[in-house]
């Protein structure tokens, strides 16, 4: 099927391809502008003339040190314009006119340029899915494949409504996961900063006072002073080590799949956070599979898309295992049960969906259930961590204060 084949199509980019900003006039005499990739300004002009545009100005897009002055295109922006296109198509507005209206009305220059580039290629007669594939940074294979399915079936308005719902749900879920990950990180960072400030700047003041006592200090106080002296002597090495380690991990995480997989496996084993990530992965799996299957994509291809969208290596491998079993003729609910990571409720609902012939609807219900559970879990985590921050900071600060005042208490008892 063309949809399945499209997901495996790789975009061929020349090694010297660069981004150019162009201005020109279309066949109607209207001024148009946008961005295109090409080997040279001449190449861009040839592309524009083939699309019915007479170029007046073509120049290489400058690279800003501080990002684009027109704002960057975010995933949330793509979700918004997807809903806008879906609404206009449902209202009977032609696709070209819909994109033109959205482009003119959008506040971000970067989004205007993106939509104008798509519009120019659409006006040249290219299929919409092919136009979107020119911008893989913003429209992934799943998005393009669903649009392709809508074009082939002649129900682009219906498919686009499903894509819009999928993108909105995906962005909402991503926001919840970021929120869940932010709070634990915030607790650790705040605790480290406060403790470091006390050890480097406050404890030395007490040490100077203690030196004048000439008395033996408690073991706890000596330990804290030792840590303080170490921090004062080597703080730059510690800070540099943290920065280098963080940078090295970021580079390795982006370059090596094995590092990403190991990180995913570790994170899902964490208490509280791991449970939220498990529920989020199930929600993504169910939502993606429901959307693709309802769009007419075969189950095997839909499972491949769901594996890529699961957002976790543990579930990606499990879903690919399900795909292999389904290819051999096994029912999906049985294959899911064999992985051992899907809850009984999920496999039972999938079984009911398979038997009733309403698998896409049942998967949508599963996604709704688990998205609500993620939402509740994140709210619960927030409520839990607020007092936890106080406890952690109170313990650290209180411990340091006790360590510093123990010698004073001891002197008072002697007196």
Textual characterization of the structure:
The model is unreliable at 1-16 and 64-69 (pLDDT under 50). This protein has a 3-stranded antiparallel sheet. It has 415 residues and is mainly α. The longest helix is centred in the middle third of the chain and has 56 residues, at 156-211. The chain has 16 helices and 3 strands. The N and C termini lie far apart (91 Å). Strand 1 and strand 2 form a beta hairpin. It is globular and about 90 Å long.
Name the features.
transmembrane; mainly alpha; 415 residues; 6% strand; globular; 16 helices
The DSSP helix count reads 16
User: How far apart are the termini?
Assistant: 91 Å
Low-confidence stretches: 1-16, 64-69
Strand order of the largest sheet: 2-1-3
Oligomeric state of the chains present here: single chain
What's the helical proportion of residues?
Answer: over 70%
Query: What structural class is derived from the secondary structure elements?
Result: mainly alpha
Tell me about the largest β-sheet: 3 strands, antiparallel
Protein name: Type II secretion system F family protein
Domain Type II secretion system protein GspF: 82-204, 285-407
Keywords: Cell inner membrane, Cell membrane, Membrane, Transmembrane, Transmembrane helix, Transport
Organism: Corallincola spongiicola
